[in-house]
Amino acid sequence: MTRPPLDPSQRPPAVVKFGGSSFRTLAAYGQLAEALSRRVEEENTRLVVVVSGRPGETEQFRDRLSKVNPHPEDETVAGLLTLADTVGAQLLATALHRQGRSSTVLAGHQLGLTTDSSFMWARLEHTDPEPLRSAVRAHDVVVVPGGQAADKEGRPTWLGKNSSDLSAVAVAAAVGSPRCEIHSDVDGIYSSDPHLITGSRLLSEVSYNTAALMSLYGAKVLHRRAVRLAQRNRIEIVCRYNRPPFPAGSVIGSAGSSVAAVVLNQRSAALRYETEELADRAYTAFHGANIDVVRLTAGPLVAVTGGFVDLPEFQRRNGLTPGEYAGVPVTAVRGSQVVTQLAADEEDALHLTQRLHDHVNRPGAGTDPNAPLLELQGV
Ligand SMILES: Nc1ncnc2c1ncn2[C@@H]1O[C@H](COP(=O)(O)OP(=O)(O)O)[C@@H](O)[C@H]1O
Ligand SMILES: N[C@@H](CC(=O)OP(=O)(O)O)C(=O)O
Questions:
Q1: Which Pfam families match (predicted)?
Q2: For residue 118, which phi and psi values (nearest 5 degrees)?
Q3: Architecture of domain 11-185 in CATH?
Q4: Scanning 175, 208, 299, 369, which has its CA 20 to 30 A from the CA of 169?
Q5: In the chain, which segments carry CATH 3.40.1160.10?
Q6: What one-character DSSP code corresponds to residue 235?
């Protein structure tokens, strides 16, 4: 006797995220809706799909806002910049409806994710899983705009720039899914940015600690707080390419061998302060605001990684003596060791990264996590 298939509304849905790079054309919405619909049928599963706005759209909103008010209050920034992801979610939902697929959009204030009231880089404080779970019971596909949440008063908050990964992991935790699949224009974490650095290698198994470390120093692909939230909830992150058949490249979990990687983010900036004490104060202020920042030890230096922070305005608002621009940090990572060097500008950072990457991957370099990385200082 064959058993009836399990009712998909009773099982955790698959949680998948598609970054902005998945929606370079409007045709991408229809193509993705078709592929998602097929997955619902073939795997007899329900889906929660977290989507980002189209590439550059969030920044277009920022640009418009700054023309109306060059120093807008955080609440407005959160209210406006999160709209790009709302647009993306609605476009995907309507593409799914066109396929005849039942779907709904759950926006930040409906999701059950409650944050503090810091608006710009808000911290998740509480999750009520019920809104998501009941939407999953009612629809084949629930579409969630990334980066959105709400504070206790129901006001829209923003989890910060590029925070859709964090939304996806928070959603996976809420619906009890053991896995979160993150789709992008790369199929995983590489030993350096594969679009810029020749010879970048795919890292198939990466530990939470290494992924979080690379992200802290500015590697795009995965959001640092998403990795940490996944680690706390034992959720495996599977990185996949964003076109069918969505091949999986890297898995981020508790396993993962020691890797050698070089992190480049041309938007990162190091600031040099007059004294160590001023650098400490600046670090504390950035860190307290939930912005990715590293206190470099080679001097009174602070690296604000990942970009999209108005540094002069942040320092002014926080009463900090402004630091002087000290260059673009480039960081070599092996195991838990890190060495950061400063490049004069974006162009120089690219050359430095290539040199460091060639060096750590030279034949016979080995992967011993305890071998000193300090030798890199002279490269
Ligand atoms: N170590 C790395 N491994 C893979 N990709 C990286 C790395 N460092 C930087 N990147 C960049 O991250 C990009 C993917 O992140 P992102 O632009 O945020 O994608 P999405 O819009 O899909 O979320 C890649 O296109 C790649 O250029
Ligand atoms: N609106 C978000 C979308 C996002 O998180 O983008 P991505 O998933 O492409 O990094 C942003 O630009 O910050």
A1: AA_kinase
A2: -85, -5
A3: 3-Layer(aba) Sandwich (3.40)
A4: 369
A5: 11-185
A6: P
